[in-house]
Amino acid sequence: MEPTTKLDARFSDPNATPTPWAQAREQLIHAETYWLTTVRADGRPHVTTLLAVWQDDAIYFCTGAEEQKARNLESNRHCALTTGASALHEGLDLVVEGAAERVTDPGKLKRLSGAWESKYGGDWHFDVGDGVFTHPEGGEALVFEVAPAKVLGFRKGEYSQTSWRFPG
């Protein structure tokens, strides 16, 4: 799915061009860590680092049912996932905004468990239980999909701010 791309000239060098979506997508695919921002029931933000995979035009993450991020998503599915270089003069930082949806389909969970292990290695092997990931050493993890509504890209060096908006 190709998003609508827009350069925000207010926050970009005069000669900057929009970052291509293909470049942003590649970074989402290969990033090792991401920051997830959710909102607590009392309105305070909650930010935590986690692992995630980009597949089928969405980003996926998992968490224990009792963890704060899972509890937050019960009452407010809106969230943001952030990744990037965290450097001042080079790289591309990305923010994916969307709503987190539980993934419970066994076939999809199986494909995602393979994606986790392929990306992060055998320490991140998951089996598929009843609508959840299970770990061989015990424990279950809920899996969430965030289909992006909007992605922001902040390119450093030739400074630019690009936004990509997705249909739907």
Automatic annotation (TrEMBL):
<dbReference type="GO" id="GO:0005829">
    <property type="term" value="C:cytosol"/>
</dbReference>
<dbReference type="GO" id="GO:0016627">
    <property type="term" value="F:oxidoreductase activity, acting on the CH-CH group of donors"/>
</dbReference>
<keyword id="KW-0560">Oxidoreductase</keyword>
<dbReference type="InterPro" id="IPR011576">
    <property type="entry name" value="Pyridox_Oxase_N"/>
</dbReference>
<dbReference type="Pfam" id="PF01243">
    <property type="entry name" value="PNPOx_N"/>
</dbReference>
<feature type="domain" description="Pyridoxamine 5'-phosphate oxidase N-terminal">
    <location>
        <begin position="22"/>
        <end position="151"/>
    </location>
</feature>
<dbReference type="InterPro" id="IPR052019">
    <property type="entry name" value="F420H2_bilvrd_red/Heme_oxyg"/>
</dbReference>
<protein>
    <submittedName>
        <fullName>Pyridoxamine 5'-phosphate oxidase family protein</fullName>
    </submittedName>
</protein>
<dbReference type="GO" id="GO:0070967">
    <property type="term" value="F:coenzyme F420 binding"/>
</dbReference>
<dbReference type="InterPro" id="IPR012349">
    <property type="entry name" value="Split_barrel_FMN-bd"/>
</dbReference>
